[in-house]
Amino acid sequence: MKQLLFITFLAIQQLILPAQTIQELSAEEAHAFLEKVNPDTLLIIDGRSKKMFQSGHLPNAINIDAYKKNLEKQLTAKVIPHKHLFIYCTRSTRSDSIINTLTLLGYKGDILQMSDGITGWKEHEFECIVPEQK
């Protein structure tokens, strides 16, 4: 009987709590996706350092350094209200760190991760934004 109650509890929990989905995309797939999607429905996160971000980033991306001590605070302030996330870094190490932190924070939205990162993006010569240096 206890086992049946536990299984019922787990089934109800899965129905009530939406699951987090994580999908990996190559730079080519990401480029095709980003050309079609409404940018207002997506938050693009560059998980690299500020210096790396300023050397070139995807259009509409914000910078949240995965290695900063205030990562949880930044994610809570900027990410939780957004449903769909697109995360990238140089390859995938920092992206993985951000995704793990989001999971710990209870984020349940959709996450797209560019598996070959900005490196793959630049190899295909897709558009990068380089802010003007002050």
Low-confidence segments, ≥5 residues, pLDDT <50? 4-17
Q: For the largest beta sheet, what order do the strands appear in spatially? A: 1-5-4-2-3
By CATH's scheme, which homologous superfamily applies? Rhodanese-like domain
- Tell me which CATH architecture applies here: 3-Layer(aba) Sandwich
Strand content: 15-25%
* CA-atom Rg in angstroms: 17 Å
Q: What would the principal axes of the Cα set say about the shape?
A: globular
State the distance separating the first and last CA atoms. Answer: 69 Å
Number of strands: 5
The largest sheet, given as strand count, sense and whether it forms a barrel, is:
5 strands, parallel
Number of helices: 6
CATH topology: Oxidized Rhodanese, domain 1
In the CATH scheme, the class would be Alpha Beta
Mean pLDDT: 87
